[in-house]
């Protein structure tokens, strides 16, 4: 029997998902190892967000005889327990409750999957020590006392990554992380992801922007119309011809400093 430590992070076999009356994911077969660095690339509306919600158990697959879903080796999860293993950073910036919270407390709130530190929550010394360590890892200690609402969009994203990592640094899932970030903040985010990858954090990056994919990501999964249309080494799949098929337009492709760029 395969031990828990060698179970992949994710195993999907013949997974289809409906949203309302429409099937939006079709026969997804996907395996992602723990600690792997993977990007899921595709145009808006291709099903990336639904795939993420299926990974985080917010959407459920259609039940068929050959369908199989295992996350960290288990078929069923309590959502609170899953969030202790899988750090999730959404595309949206923090909501109203979080914006009045300091950066340190926002990171601590990740232990409770809450929007802020409510009075009924008990924070231990071990939690505070872990939060300080995560903020140091992210070069974010200067944000500890700063209210999230007064941070720049880039600082907010860095804080939310800390919140996602505070319980576990095993796998980090980022959904369109460069949304709402200016050019300087995008660059800082990309450098941060490179650092986390080198630190051994598993990264699953969902994006429609090729420039978001750092050099440390070796594998690319391409999605279109709710299906996986390609899955393999980045350097083999990221070609002008493949990208033309994926996005439906003729594009110019260059590579500089380990990053690919389109225009």
Short description:
The protein has 263 residues and is α/β, with parallel strands linked by helices.
Structural description of this entry:
The protein is an alpha/beta fold and 263 residues long. The protein has a domain at 94-162. It has helices at residues 48-55, 79-83, 96-99, 103-108, 125-137, 153-165, 183-198, 234-237, 240-247; strands at 10-19, 22-32, 37-41, 68-71, 86-89, 171-175, 202-207, 219-224, 227-233, 253-256, 259-262. A 6-stranded mixed sheet has the order 5-6-7-3-8-9, sandwiched between helices. Strands 2-1-4 form a 3-stranded antiparallel sheet, with helices on one face. A two-stranded antiparallel sheet has the order 10-11. It is globular. The protein starts with 9 loop residues before the first strand and ends with a strand.
Beta content: 25-35%
Number of strands: 11
Across the major sheet, the strand order is 5-6-7-3-8-9
* Helix content range: 25-40%
Structural class: alpha/beta
Number of helices: 9
Q: List low-pLDDT spans.
A: none
Rg, Å, rounded: 19 Å
Write down the overall geometry.
Answer: globular
Calculate the terminal CA-CA distance, rounded to whole Å: 49 Å
Largest sheet: 6 strands, mixed
The oligomeric state is single chain
Q: How confident overall, as mean pLDDT?
A: 91
Give the SSE order as H and E letters.
EEEHEHEHHHHEHEEEHHEE
């Amino acid at each position: 029997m395969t031990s828990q430590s060698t179970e992949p992070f994710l195993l999907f076999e013949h997974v289809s998902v409906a949203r309302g009356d429409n099937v939006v994911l079709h026969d997804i077969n996907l395996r992602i190892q723990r600690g792997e660095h993977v990007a899921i690339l595709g145009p808006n509306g291709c099903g990336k967000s639904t795939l993420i919600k299926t990974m985080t158990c917010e959407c459920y697959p259609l039940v068929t005889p050959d369908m199989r879903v295992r996350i960290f080796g288990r078929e069923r999860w309590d959502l609170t327990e899953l969030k202790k293993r899988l750090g999730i950073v959404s595309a949206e910036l923090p909501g109203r409750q979080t914006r009045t919270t300091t950066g340190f407390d926002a990171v601590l709130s990740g232990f409770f999957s809450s929007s802020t530190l409510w009075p009924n929550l008990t924070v231990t010394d071990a939690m505070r020590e872990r939060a300080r360590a995560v903020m140091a890892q992210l070069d974010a200690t200067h944000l500890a006392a700063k209210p999230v609402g007064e941070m720049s969009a880039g600082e907010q994203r860095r804080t939310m990554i800390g919140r996602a990592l505070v319980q576990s640094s095993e796998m980090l899932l980022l959904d369109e992380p460069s949304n709402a970030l200016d050019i300087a903040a995008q660059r800082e985010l990309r450098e941060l992801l490179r650092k986390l990858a080198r630190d051994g954090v598993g990264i699953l990056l969902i994006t429609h922007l090729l420039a978001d994919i750092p050099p440390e990501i070796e594998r690319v999964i391409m999605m279109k119309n709710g299906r996986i249309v390609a899955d393999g080494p980045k350097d083999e799949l990221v070609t002008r011809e493949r990208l033309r098929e994926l996005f439906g337009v003729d594009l110019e492709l260059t590579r500089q400093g380990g990053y690919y760029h389109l225009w």
